[in-house]
Amino acid sequence: KIVPTVRADKAGNMTIMLTNASLDATGRFECRVRSSKELFAMDKDGTLVSVQQRIEGDTRVVTIENIDRWDYLLLTNME
After folding, report:
1. Strand, helix or coil at 18?
2. Nearest CA-CA partner of 77 in 10, 6, 14, 9
């Protein structure tokens, strides 16, 4: 089970925390986000990393390779 937590402002800047609230790793899955800006994953040390994504209308479809059990992934469109 993936639990999303989204923080966004009126300018469209956002941070999304995807938490794997499960005893199993997620494996590969897609996440759909309404954003006109490119999304990046944020490493635990704060480094921004490119993620595989494609644009479908006003939505970005991000491919997530895996979130380990009881771990999380941060996505952001702020550079």
Report:
1. strand
2. 14
